[in-house]
Amino acid sequence: VQLQASGGGLVQAGGSLRLSCAASGLTFNNHAMAWFRQAPGEEREIVAAINWNADSTYYAGFVKGRFTISRDNAKNTVYLQMKNLEPEDTAVYYCAASVLQFANNEKLYPYWGQGTQVTVSS
Question: Which residue, among 89, 94, 84, 85, has the nearest Cα to 21 in the 3D structure?
Fold first, then answer.
C-alpha cells in the first residue's frame, strides 16, 4: 500500500490549502480514509475521517467547520480542503487508510503516507 500526500506549503493566517492523497496497492473504495496531523513536540491527532463511500465523515473539534474531507474513488484520492487556517494548524499532515470502511481511531489505520508540511504564518 502506498499513500502519497501532497499540497502542503506556507500560507498566511486566514488562507487556504488543499491537501491530496493518492492511494495505490489497495482496493480504495473498501477503506475509510483519514487525515492526521502532528505538530512539533505534540502527539499525532486525527483531523478528519471519511467512510468508504463518502456518506459519513468525522471531524476533530478544533476543525470548527474550517476543513472539509472528501474522496474520489474513481481517482483513488482523498482530499482535505482547509480554509481560515490558523498558526495553530501548523503541523505535518498525514493521510492514512483504515482496515475498516469507517473509523476515527488511529489504531485502526495501519497504512500511512509520508506526510506533507503545512505552515501557517501569523
Answer: 94
HSE-CB at 5 with a 13 A cutoff on CA atoms is 26
Q: Which grid coordinates belong to 120? A: 501557517
Assign 28 to helix, strand or coil: helix
| Closest among 36, 30, 17 to 82, alpha carbons compared | 17
Return the bridge partners of 9, or none.
118
Instruction: Give the strand pairing for 17-24 and 2-6.
Output: antiparallel
pLDDT in tens, 95-109: 999 998 888 899 999
Q: How far is CA 9 from the centre of its chain?
A: 14
Checking if the pLDDT of 25 tops 90, the result is yes
Provide the 8-state DSSP code for 92.
Answer: E
What backbone phi and psi angles, to 5 degrees, belong to 42?
-115, 160
